[in-house]
Design goal:
single chain, alpha/beta, 2 domains, 6-stranded parallel beta sheet, two-stranded antiparallel sheet
Length: about 250
């Protein structure tokens, strides 16, 4: 079967006797358009090599929907990861990040799920892996960052009404501890160093925290290696091969 796109319409040629009915073709076109709208491309199961690519872009959307922003929806990513774990044809996962951060609960949910899958996984930070994007960057078996990408470490923040009582303070402490413990468990950075970077008051005018660029993230043990797509794919294939040999 050969598919082409011409004048914003999908045409399908068959080299067999089978053919879609009008209803089936309409459904196919609808699913194609929806995939482009939500994921920025065709939502294909995996590449020919058995590697599944998952983009984490824009803002990590939580329970509140904000319009006019490019977002990654956790309700999309979670079933995809579940499908990957169940699909024997998928051999590895490449997580590609360019995110500003976003909802803590949603970001940690995705990061914990990636961490828990049995398939080899590699992350690649492109552009930025900020805020809750940091746990997402370190949740894989191995992590890469391109030389010009940045990562921002800072304490959790919130917007809107906050009740100024000690219970609120304790709640934020617990949320912050969840993030810190996850990052330390999934990377080589030491807890005191991570805390110092998060609470740095000398680097950002309107915020507390630190900005790391490329090699700096590697030097402190947050990311494993500086590199681009080619080395990330090479590493992932190595991990896949190691798993096959050990199974």
């Amino acid at each position: 079967m050969d598919e082409t796109i011409k004048n914003n319409e999908i045409t399908t040629d068959y080299d067999t006797d089978g053919a879609y009915s009008e209803g089936e073709n309409a459904r196919y076109v609808s699913e194609f358009a929806e995939s482009i709208k939500e994921f920025g491309g065709m939502n294909l199961p995996e590449s020919k090599s058995g590697i599944r690519v998952i983009p984490i872009i824009g803002e990590i959307e939580g329970h509140v929907i904000e319009m006019q922003k490019k977002v990654t929806k956790y309700e999309h990513i979670i079933p995809i990861l579940t499908q990957i774990e169940e699909d024997d044809d998928v051999e590895g996962v490449l997580l590609m990040l360019n995110t500003l951060g976003g909802d803590v609960e949603a970001g940690l949910a995705i990061a914990e799920l990636v961490r828990s899958i049995s398939k080899p996984s590699v992350s690649l930070v492109l552009g930025g892996g900020h805020s809750i994007g940091v746990p997402l960057a370190v949740c894989t078996d191995y992590s890469f960052i391109v030389p010009t990408a940045t990562m921002t470490l800072h304490p959790i923040r919130t917007t809107g009404l906050v009740i100024g009582v000690w219970q609120s303070f304790e709640y934020f402490k617990k949320m912050q501890e969840r993030i810190i413990s996850f990052i330390v468990a999934c990377s080589d950075i030491e807890r005191p160093r991570l805390m110092d970077l998060m609470l740095n008051t000398t680097e950002m005018v309107n915020d507390v925290g630190s900005i790391l660029i490329g090699q700096q993230a590697v030097d402190i043990g947050l990311i494993n290696e500086v590199g681009g797509l080619n080395v990330a794919l090479k590493k992932l294939k190595e991990l896949i091969e190691e798993k096959k040999q050990n199974s």
